[in-house]
Amino acid sequence: MMIVRDIPKLKSLLRAARAQDKTVGFVPTMGAFHDGHLSLMRVCRRENDLVVVSIFVNPIQFGPKEDFRRYPRQEKKDVFLAKKENVDIIFCPSIKNMYPDGYLTSVEVADVSNRLCGRSRPGHFRGVATVVAKLLNIVEPDRLYLGEKDAQQGVVIQRMIEDLNVPVSVRILKTVRETDGLAMSSRNQYLTAVQRREAAVLYRALKSAADQIRHGERRAQRIRQTIRRMILRESSARIDYVACVDGNSLRPVDLLQGRVLVALAVWFGNTRLIDNITINII
Ligand code: AMP
User: Fold this and answer.
1) pTM
2) Cα(141)–Cα(135) distance, integer angstroms
3) Is the pLDDT of residue 282 over 90?
4) Taking Cα atoms as reference points, which of 278, 25, 96, 23 lies closest to residue 175?
5) What are φ and ψ of residue 273, in 5° steps?
6) Which residues are identified as catalytic?
7) Which amino acids bring their CB within 6 angstroms of ligand 1?
């Protein structure tokens, strides 16, 4: 496995691979690997000749009051874990390499960026779309691997890829969870023991919403109410949003039909966690 920090060096390595007709799979991350990241690497390994994983804590997707400075960084451990998954190249650019002096450009995916998490994190998805556009131009992968856990991120990136005619196919993979159902996240390590225990309510609430839908409930308001009630029983939880939206447009729905995304963001102390489920109603 190679660790590459330099953009021209990575490009020349990938040019050589492509000249040998090798397919390239790409997993962009912010590091602090857990089984969610590793599951993306595993599928990427199965489906491509060359596996590239980036580790870059992207400053422009964090708001001024967010956790950019304290975001976990553990490069040595990440390198060890990626090696075990037979990753070929870890790309760890510096901030200066990605955003050199004089940098001015950003990619804005309108509408879908401003819903759900976009409301409480203004500019977040502009930062995400911009860094992913840059990474796709650098790596030029055949396949891009994303996690379902960041559902809105997936919608924003897929929209950008279609709108800008980026020649890559996107694979969105299932959320990997702890045994009590909590979606794995690098931010889970911020939680106190009490918050960590209480955070398991998120998936319990989503599952009970799914049950309610399975039993025929179609009113979004009822579904949201079920979820909110369950979450508010936990003393450290503060709800940012609980939403039922169309899985493609992310527009709120009143009556559930088609592919519906039930998504939430909840604060536990200073830590904001997100989770979601997608339900297909036929
Ligand atoms: P991050 O390092 O948080 O930016 O995440 C990098 C990639 O891993 C993104 O595509 C995430 O959606 C994905 N990911 C994060 N957590 C999980 C999880 N629990 N299960 C599956 N994929 C995940």
Assistant:
1) 0.98
2) 9
3) no
4) 278
5) -110, 145
6) 37
7) 29-30, 36-37, 39-40, 146-147, 149-150, 175-176, 183-186
User: For the purposes of burial, counting CB atoms within 10 Å of the CB of 132, is it exposed (0-12), middle (13-18) or buried (19 or more)?
Assistant: buried
Q: pLDDT, tens digit, for every residue of 38-79?
A: 999 999 999 999 999 999 999 999 999 999 999 999 999 999
**Residue from 98, 66, 90 nearest 187 by CA:** 66
Measured in Å, residue 25 CA sits from the centre of ligand 1 at 16
In the 8-state DSSP scheme, what is residue 268?
E
Strands ordered across the beta sheet of 237-246: 237-246, 258-268, 271-281
Q: Which two tokens stand for residue 77?
A: 């451990």
Ligand 1 centroid from CA 185, angstroms: 7
Phi, psi of 43 (to 5 degrees): -65, -40
For 21-48, give the DSSP string.
Answer: T--EEEEEE-S---HHHHHHHHHHHHH-
Helix or strand holding residue 97 (H, E): helix 95-98
